[in-house]
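protein disulfide-isomerase
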Amino acid sequence: MLNSKAQILIVTCFLSLFTSAEVDIEKVSQKVTDKFVEKQISKSTVLPPCQACKALVGSFSKGMERTARNKFDGGDAAWEEEKMKSYRNSEVRLVEIQEKLCTDLDKGEDQCHKLVEDAEQYIEDWWFNKQDTDLYEFLCIESLKRCCPSDHYGPECKPCPGYPDRVCSNNGRCKGNGTRKGNGACACDSGYTGSMCDSCADGYYQAYKDEKVVLCSSCHVSCQGACTQAGSKGCLACKVGYRMDAEHGCMDINECAIEDHGPCGSNQFCVNNDGSYSCLDCDRACNGCDGDGPDNCFSCAKGYFMNEQMCVDEAQYSRDRHVVFARYAVYGGLTIATCIIFQNSQKVAFGIGLAVALYIAASEHYISQSNQNAGPKLPMGDASM
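Structure:
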């Protein structure tokens, strides 16, 4: 028999496992539910009429690819193909395609199934009689009238402005292009304007034009509104942060040079940018500065002092002096100890002394390389206390 403590421990373990499993089941259940809801939303999504018809044609084309290498399931395929026509154009293959039609769509599956019902007779007509024509054109444009040919729009599939070679001057798109929707108006690309997108928009200038092409390029960054040519010389007016110069056009204003210390705060320094400026905080060692780093301070902040034109941390400087003193004391101690211990043997003393010298030289070289960018070096004279 287990004692009461062991029984309690076992029960606790089972409860813990059960609770953990219950939590995991809830998480899995929630994920399954979320995926199901997401799938149902995707299935019920309603697409524009032309897009829905394109989705149906795309699904049908995938079905044709899927069944391209199939054949009749009977024992004598050759006889079946001879008597029942080729599998390629058979009703059997059509049924196999239709069985999975629309199920591969990410969105609009329900709408696609409904569209199949409306298009069934046209699909069969195309399958048995008109496979030499494009399915999309036959089904979506000619039969169901859900789409228009390219560069046509609206219920009557009228041609877009500039059709066929210069639709919207080739600088925009026709609203409703390829669908039974839209009004055919030109939606111009960036930099173009006008009913035919044949003019340059504000902030652009005409870089090239002939009977067929209009090319608009962006004005210089310093220009306010329109311009006549590339660069700052072409500006008709300047943006804030620039001034008009008779020879060079719009020139940057150096805000940092307007006042003695620029437009920034007392413990900041100014950096001039194109058309503007930035205020950056001085190094913490500074009390006022004209640039980044402790070597650009006007004066030093509390706890720092000026050393070789750089503000240095007093506490760190003091610690460094103690380290230097201790280091040279060790070197001196090694030298004295070598002389005392090996005073009776000049050769051994020379060898040990040489080793100590090499050790000192290597140590100093390593320290010099490590600290070459760490700040001002302590003068040799400061090693003494």
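Residues 375-385 have pLDDT under 50 and may be disordered.
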